[in-house]
């Protein structure tokens, strides 16, 4: 094998703190951009003689990027790459393969819920041998490499076609092309009661799963239709397409409106769900009802024991700080620990590895468990189906029972997108500077009881993460959180997270935006969001 060594210049690396590189496709396709980032990873992880998993969500540039990664892996002395057929692997499936085959890590190609295509976004993330996103110490080292790198290595030869399963070679490196779905589907069968779900479906229970033209299509067809017997066509938008059919593969009521429209009619399916570009997020619906991700986490935690994989109970629950406290109330009732971590799945890794928690979740439609080290969209869907089958109740009844027992935590996220980065930075800086002056003051009729920045110390390895979001607590328990997104690629996105708890005896049937109106106004008055962003309303409300 001939190896080319190319001189190169440092690149603009990932935003500090994010677990990979996410940029526009245009930036990723610039000469040597991808190669430089891949070489920076290789320089950090010393890949010679090692084995890695490679796969992505099938978006535009997936195939080109994988061919380059294969050639660079061979040139950097990698022993073996296991890659999904056609270059496809959902993020949770990639995490599973890393763990199942005991590889040294993996490369996941995706910009997750961001749109794809030549005008969309692309991303690349390195996961370690645990199956989870690399911790900050590693991503920081990769970032430092991107700033000093002077050359990269790539095989002269073309990479083999990966459209068929089989074993191939590139120089001294072995490339094994595997079915992207089979191992993952088998794992699900060990955790979830497939017989109970099959029985439920055979008795006429109907479902609609919207794969949003993204990676979960083939997984959902195999699991929901072939293995569980859902009617052909229950999985819609099932073919992964390079630009996700021109859509935005983010499973929330705004971007998955088509699913909402199908579920909100009286004769709609009994159960509806959707997943994102790379298959790690989920949206759960029943006939006439949308379940917020924070509530879904709480219901999953309260009922996980109904599934075979969790029959012995769960060790603890972790949620990201902006996620609602609904899951904490379940943890309290179960007598287990409830952890709050910064936003991003990588913060759950140490707790999962240490066996301190079993179930984790984020308000951004991410739920998962100790079975892999990523959030897992289809897993959440299957666990919900398992719970429905075991309880013999509709989604609506399950939610009403849950709220009747724990109370209802009304929740919503308001996003101000593509805000000028300087303006967004100043809004946050000013707010931080004013934190001490806020307690005791009243806004929109609500008195501030707490105002602080969220700093985190990992209870397992002692690592720290500071300034992870501003928490504003109000009398009566309402809460607002403000933080800047780390995954957007245009300007800055300000996220305002709102919650308000209602006791089991309170009004459990309010419109969520109404129930949160006052806390939303209070937060806006404190941060002066609408005036300073020049928007009369948030761009996306979920
Ligand atoms: C968003 C979500 C966060 C999630 C992250 C990655 O981050 O808020 O909860 O972990 O996306 O999800 P941010 O920094 O934009 O708020 V995925 O499905 O894009 O891997
Ligand atoms: Co995702």
How would you characterize this protein structure?
There is one protein chain. The protein is an alpha/beta fold and 542 residues long. The chain has 3 domains: 3-179, 3-Layer(aba) Sandwich (Alpha-D-Glucose-1,6-Bisphosphate, Chain A, domain 3), CATH 3.40.120; 184-406, Alpha-D-Glucose-1,6-Bisphosphate, subunit A, domain 3 (Alpha-D-Glucose-1,6-Bisphosphate, Chain A, domain 3), CATH 3.40.120; 408-541, Alpha-D-phosphohexomutase, C-terminal domain (TATA-Binding Protein, 2-Layer Sandwich), CATH 3.30.310.50. The protein is 33% helix and 26% strand. The protein contains 18 helices and 27 strands. The strands form 6 sheets. The protein has a 7-stranded mixed β-sheet with strand order 2-6-5-3-4-9-8, with helices on both faces. Strands 20-21-24-25-26-19-27 form a 7-stranded antiparallel β-sheet. Strands 11-10-12-13-14 form a 5-stranded mixed β-sheet, with helices on both faces. Helix 10 packs parallel to helix 11. The chain is globular. The termini are far apart. The mean pLDDT is 95. The protein binds alpha-D-glucose-1-phosphate-6-vanadate and cobalt (II) ion.
């Amino acid at each position: 094998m001939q190896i080319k060594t190319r001189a190169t210049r440092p690149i603009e690396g990932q935003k500090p703190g994010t677990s990979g590189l996410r940029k526009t496709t245009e930036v990723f396709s610039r000469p040597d951009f991808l190669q430089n980032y891949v070489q920076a990873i290789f320089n950090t992880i010393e890949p010679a003689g090692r084995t890695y998993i490679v796969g992505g969500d099938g978006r535009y540039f997936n195939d080109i990027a994988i061919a380059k990664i294969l050639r660079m892996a061979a040139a950097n002395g990698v022993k073996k790459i296991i890659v999904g057929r056609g270059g496809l692997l959902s993020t949770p499936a990639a995490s599973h393969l890393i763990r199942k085959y005991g590889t040294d890590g993996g490369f996941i190609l995706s910009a997750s819920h961001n749109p794809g295509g030549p005008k969309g976004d692309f991303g690349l993330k390195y996961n370690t041998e645990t199956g989870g996103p690399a911790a900050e110490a590693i991503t920081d080292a990769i970032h430092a490499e991107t700033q000093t790198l002077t050359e990269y290595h790539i095989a002269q030869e073309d990479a083999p076609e990966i459209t068929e399963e089989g074993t191939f070679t590139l120089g001294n490196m072995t490339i094994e092309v595997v079915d992207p779905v089979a191992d993952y589907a088998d794992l699900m069968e060990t955790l979830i009661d497939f017989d109970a779900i099959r029985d439920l479906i055979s008795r006429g229970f109907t479902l609609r799963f919207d794969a949003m033209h993204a990676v979960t299509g083939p997984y959902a067809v195999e699991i929901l239709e072939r293995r569980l017997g859902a009617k052909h066509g229950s999985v819609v938008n099932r073919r992964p397409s390079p630009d996700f059919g021109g859509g935005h593969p983010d499973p929330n009521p705004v971007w998955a409106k088509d699913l909402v429209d199908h579920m909100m009619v009286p004769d709609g399916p009994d159960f509806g769900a959707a997943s994102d570009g790379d298959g790690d997020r989920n949206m759960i619906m029943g006939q006439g009802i949308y379940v917020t991700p924070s509530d879904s986490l709480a219901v999953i935690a309260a009922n996980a024991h109904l599934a075979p994989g969790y029959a012995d109970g769960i060790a603890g629950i972790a949620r990201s700080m902006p996620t609602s406290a609904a899951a904490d109330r379940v943890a309290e009732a179960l007598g287990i620990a409830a952890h709050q971590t910064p936003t991003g799945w990588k913060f759950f890794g140490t707790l999962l590895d240490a066996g301190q928690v079993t179930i984790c979740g984020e308000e951004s439609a991410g739920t998962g468990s100790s079975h892999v080290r990523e959030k897992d969209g289809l897993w959440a869907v299957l666990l919900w189906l398992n719970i429905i089958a075991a309880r013999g109740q509709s989604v609506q009844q399950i939610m009403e029972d849950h709220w009747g027992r724990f109370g209802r935590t009304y929740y919503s996220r308001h996003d101000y997108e593509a805000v000028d980065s300087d303006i967004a930075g100043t809004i946050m800086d000013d707010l931080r500077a004013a934190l001490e002056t806020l307690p005791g003051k009243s806004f929109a009729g609500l008195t501030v009881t707490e105002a602080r920045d969220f700093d985190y110390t990992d209870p397992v390895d002692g690592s720290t993460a500071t300034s992870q979001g501003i928490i504003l607590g109000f009398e009566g328990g309402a809460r607002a959180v403000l933080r800047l997104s780390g995954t957007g690629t245009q300007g800055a996105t300000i996220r305002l997270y709102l919650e308000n708890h209602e006791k089991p005896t309170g009004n459990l049937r309010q419109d969520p935006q109404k129930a949160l109106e006052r806390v939303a106004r209070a937060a806006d008055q404190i941060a002066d969001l609408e005036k300073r962003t020049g928007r009369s309303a948030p761009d996306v409300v979920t």
